[in-house]
């Protein structure tokens, strides 16, 4: 009887343990809730309407001052200073996507064609995971995977899955302990490199006005580092003049 009781107890313990382990696997919404809680709270993220990031971009061993302006709902401007000359690889004022490349033989800014502008026009300022269902996106947990030795929850995000716009698939890896994204996988949607996987490795999270931002981003294509972005300062809700983004007129 004693042995039978012990075996019964062990079986019950194994069952309880298995149930506990199963219960430890969070749902997509639980992971995202933890993410927003850890990084400042979803209400603070919803209240974020603009930011300016300043720092440096390192590419092919060369370092350039970098400034990123962004404002809701979808305005953006990236500025590099190369030997005193301003380069704008991409900008969008909500209507026109444009660029300025004095090193490419053009002293004046030019509008991007539809193919080049596709990706920048589809980006939103607000985090895609905020009210993702209402936006028509689909988020699914694809299990766990290690990224540089860190166990992560792998979440596939299909933007526009449930609305008429073009589907855009991304993969986001969230640190299973801290619930912050440490890697984001996107795929080039236009040009000769269409379909190419690009990975952004995020690190050095720091608090800015109650929100946690990654201050370091390493961008890799096919496993090769293309650029490293080191942010030195971030100002939030600071942009009141939208002319920063406007396509310059002659």
Structure description:
The chain has four helices and 13 strands. It is of the alpha+beta class. Strands 6-5-4-3-2-1-13-12-11-10-9-8-7 form a 13-stranded antiparallel beta sheet. A hairpin with a 2-residue loop joins strand 11 (197-208) and strand 12.
Write the layout of secondary structure elements.
Blueprint: H1 2-24, H2 28-38, H3 42-47, E1 50-59, E2 62-71, E3 75-82, E4 85-92, E5 97-100, E6 110-111, H4 114-122, E7 138-147, E8 150-159, E9 168-175, E10 181-187, E11 197-208, E12 211-221, E13 224-236
Summarize, please.
This protein has helices spanning 2-24, 28-38, 42-47, 114-122, and strands at residues 50-59, 62-71, 75-82, 85-92, 97-100, 110-111, 138-147, 150-159, 168-175, 181-187, 197-208, 211-221, 224-236. It is α+β, with helices and mostly antiparallel strands and 250 residues long.
pLDDT < 50 runs, ≥5 residues: 1-23
* Oligomer classification: single chain
The count of β-strands is 13
Q: Please count the helical segments.
A: 4
Please identify the top-level CATH class. Answer: Mainly Beta
Instruction: Output the radius of gyration.
Output: 22 Å
Could you give the distance between the termini? Answer: 94 Å
- Strand fraction equals over 45%
Number of domains: 1
CATH homologous superfamily descriptor: Lipoprotein localisation LolA/LolB/LppX
Annotated CATH architecture: Clam
Largest sheet: 13 strands, antiparallel
């Amino acid at each position: 009887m004693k042995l039978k009781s012990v075996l019964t107890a062990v079986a019950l313990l194994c069952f309880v343990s298995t149930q506990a382990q199963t219960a430890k696997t969070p749902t997509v919404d639980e992971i995202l809730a933890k993410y927003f809680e850890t990084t400042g709270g979803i209400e603070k993220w919803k209240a974020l309407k603009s930011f300016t990031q300043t720092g440096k971009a390192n590419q092919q061993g060369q370092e350039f001052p970098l400034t990123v302006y962004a404002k809701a709902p979808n305005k953006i401007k990236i500025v590099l200073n190369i030997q005193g000359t301003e380069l704008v690889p991409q900008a969008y004022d909500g209507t026109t996507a444009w660029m300025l490349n004095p090193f490419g033989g053009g002293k004046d800014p030019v509008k991007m064609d539809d193919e080049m502008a596709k990706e920048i026009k589809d980006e939103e300022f607000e985090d895609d995971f905020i009210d993702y269902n209402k936006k028509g996106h689909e988020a699914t947990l694809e299990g766990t995977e290690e990224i540089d030795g860190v166990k992560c929850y792998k979440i596939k995000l299909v933007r526009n899955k449930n609305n008429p716009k073009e589907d855009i698939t991304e993969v986001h890896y969230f640190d299973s302990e801290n619930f912050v994204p440490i890697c984001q996988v996107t795929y080039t949607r236009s040009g000769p490199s269409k379909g190419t996987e690009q990975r952004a490795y995020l690190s050095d999270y720091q608090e800015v006005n109650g929100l946690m931002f990654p201050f370091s981003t390493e961008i890799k294509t096919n496993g090769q580092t293309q650029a490293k972005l080191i942010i030195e300062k971030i100002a939030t809700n600071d942009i009141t003049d939208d002319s920063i983004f406007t396509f310059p007129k002659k």
